[in-house]
Amino acid sequence: MAAHSAGQFAAAAALYRAVLDVDPRHADALRLFGLTCFQTGQTATAIEWLSKAVREAPTTSQYRTDLALVQMSAGRLEEATRMLAAALALAPESPEAWFNRAMLAEGAKRRDEAMALFRRATWTRPEMAEAHAALGTLLVARGNTKAAVGPLSQAIALDPELSEARLKLGGALQELGRQEEALAYYAGGCAAQPEVVEFHNNRGNVLLALGRAEEAAGAYRVGLAFRPDLGETFNNLGNAVIAGPHRDEAGPFYRRAVLLRPNLAEALSGLGRWLVDREAHEEAIQRFRQALAIERERPEYLSNLGSVLRTVGQLDEALRLFRHALALAPGNPEGHNNMASATLTLGDADDAIRNYRRTLAIAPAVLDVCRNLLTATLYSTAVLPAAAFAEHRRFAELFRPKEAPTPLPARAREPEKRLRIGYLSSDFRHHPIARNTWPWLTERDRTHFEVVCFAEVHKPDHVTEQLKPLVDGWISIIGRSDAEVAAEVRRAGIDILIILAGHFDRNRPLVATYRPAPITASAHDGATSGLEEMDYLLADPIVCPRHGREGFTERVVRLPLISLQRPIDGAPSMEPPPVLRTGAITFGSFNNPAKVTPATVELWAGVLHAVPGSRIVLKYRNVFGAAAARQRLQAMFARRGIPAERLVMAAASGTADPVLHHLALYHHVDIALDTFPFNGSTTTFEALWMGLPVVTLMGETMMARWAGSMLAHVGRREWAAETAADYVRIAGALAGDRDRLVRERQALRSDVARSPLCDAPRAMRHLERTYRALWRRWCAAA
Fold first, then answer.
1. Is 292 within 8 Å of 305 (Cβ atoms)?
2. Are 323 and 305 in contact (CB under 8 A)?
3. How far, CA to CA in Å, does 616 sit from each of 588, 655, 661, 782?
4. pTM for the complete prediction?
5. Beta bridge partners of 522
6. DSSP letters along 116-182, please?
7. Tens digit of pLDDT for each residue in 268-296?
8. How far is 117 from 779, CA to CA, in rounded Å?
C-alpha cells in the first residue's frame, strides 16, 4: 500500500500478488490489485479482480463502488448502474457511490439528475472537493455561471491543486465581468502549479482584456517556456504585442502560431491584421482568405477581408463581404461601420453617415466610429456648419478624460527662449501631410527653434527616413494611449505642440485633452477639433475667413498661407492641351471618389451640358475598376442627362513608377474640375503643376475653400467660383479659349514654382513669428 500511494504501481502489484499467493481470498488485496491494474490501463483485468473482491466481501459498499467506476470506464454502464445501486443499498451515505452515480447520469446526458446527485455527494461528505468541482463544472456547462462560482470556489478551497476547477472558476468569473477576481485565481494557479500552461495563458487573456498588454505578453511568455509548441499561446502573444508599444514585433509570433497550427483561423486573421498595418495588402488578403476557408461564416473574418479589399480598390467583392457579415450578425457594430466606410469610398457621404449612426446606436462610444462620422460630415452638403460643430462638441464631451489632466511642471516664462516645437502625426511618410510640412522641418531657424516629432508611423518608408535627420528628436508613439503620449510630450519639454490632420488616418487630437504642453494647436485638419483644450487652429484668411459660418472651439490664427507645397521633382514635361489633337474638350478629376458627392456631380453635369461634345476623365487608384463605383456615377450623371459615353473612368496602371504615370495622365486632360464641398489639395497642386487650370467652388467650410486659397496664391483667383452658376461659366469660358489653355500649359508650372505656395523660407518666417507671438502671449498671461 505504501508503494501504491507513491505511484509505484508495478512494485505494488507484485507485492499484492505475493499476498494473494499466501491468501488467494484476501479481499483487500484483491481490490487493491484490481485498482493497480486499472491505473496501468488493464481495465478488463481490473474488472476480473475487483469482481473477485466483491464476491469475497459482498457486504462491503466500497468494493462495489470501485468496481462500478471501472465498469463505467469500460462502457459497461448498465452493470455499473446495478453495482452502484447495490453499493448504496449497503451504505446509503457513501459519497463515492453518489459521486459515481452522478457521473453515470452526466454521461447519459441526464444533467438535472447529475446535478442532484453531485449535491447529494457534497452533503454526505462536505470535504469532497471533486464533487464540488464536478457540480460547478456542470453548472457552467448548463449556462448557470453565477451559480457555479460557489461550488467551484469551495472545491479550490478544499484542494488548491484542482487545476481544472480553478480554470473553470476563472472562466466563470471572466464571463461575469469579475476580471480582477479571475486574475487572482489564475495567479494562484500559476504559483501553485506553474507547469500548468493554461494558468499562464488564461492569466494573459485577462490582463489583455484589462488593457495591460505588456503584462499579458509576459504571462504568455512564461507559459511558452514550459510548452513552446502551443500555437494558441503564440497567437495570444501576438495579440498582446500588437496591442502594446512594440506592435511591430507581433508578426513573428503570429507566423509561429500558424506554423504550429496551420488551421488556427484566429492566428491567420491576426497575421492578416498585422500585415494590413504594414500595408502588405497582398499577403494580408491571402491570410484572411485562409482564415475564411476554415471558418466560412465568421463575420469578423469577412469584415477583415472586405476592409483590405476596399483599401486596394476591389470594392465589389468588399461590398459583398460586408453585406454577408451584416446578414450573419445584424447587431454587430463593426458590420455597419464597414458598410459606412465602403459607401463613403463610393462617394455617398449621406448614406455613410446613416451607417455610422447605426453603428453608434449599437456601440455608442467607439472612438474610431465617432471619428469616422466626423470625417464623413466633411463630405456632405446635407450637414450644415452648425450641425457639424455640434457633432464635434459631442465627440469632445464623449471622449474627454474623466480625470483632470496632470498639471504641467513649473517652467520659467521666458518670452525669447529657444522654443521646443512638437509635431504629432501618423503621416510622416509618403503622404500629403509630410509633403505640406516638410519645409517646416527643412527651413526652420535652428538657432531659435528645436523640433521633436511624435510619430505613429506603422509602415516607415523612404520619406520617414529622410525626415528623421531633419529634427532634434523622433519619438515613436505606436501602441501608446493618449495619456501615455501626453506624458511623452511633457517629458520632452515641448513648449508648443502642433497636432497635424487630427480628423484623418491614425492621428491623435485627444492628446490635447491632457494639456501636455503650454500651447497646443491644430494644423492641416478638416474642421474644428471640438476640444476646448486645443488652444489654436492654424489657417489662412481664405481657408478660414473672419465672420464665417463655421464654428471653432479653438482661437483661429490666420497665417498668410497654410497650404505650403513642395515642387514635384522629375514630373513629366509639358505637352500641349489635348483639345488641339482631339478637337473636343476633356475635363478631369483625379480626386478620391468620396469627394464626388451629388453636389459635385450637379456641378460637373452643368459644365458638360455647357460645353457640347466634352467629356470628363475620372481616376483614383483602382476604385473605378469596381463596377459599383462606375455604376453609381453613371446613374448619377444619367439622371442629369449625361450619357455614360461622356464619362471615362481610369484605373491605376500597376506600372513601376505609378506617380509619374499618374501625372502623365494629365496630358489627356484640358481642364481640372474640383470637388465640392471637400476640395482637392494634393490633386489641385498636381494639376496646376502639370499646367491645367483648376475650377473650384468656394463654400462655407475650410474643406470647401482649400483649393480657392491655393488658386489665389498662384495668381488665379478668377478660377474660384462663388456660386454654382459661376463654376459652370468659368469652366465654359476656359473651354472656349484654346489660346488661354495653351498659355497656361506653358506658364503655370513656373508661376506655381515662384508663388508663395512654394516659397518655403517666406512661409517659415511667418510661421515662426506666429509661434513666437503665441509663446509671448502665454508668458504674458502669468
1. yes
2. no
3. 5, 23, 18, 58
4. 0.77
5. 499, 537
6. HHHHHHHHH-TT-HHHHHHHHHHHHHTT-HHHHHHHHHHHHHH-TT-HHHHHHHHHHHHHTT-HHHH
7. 999 999 999 888 999 999 999 999 999 99
8. 78
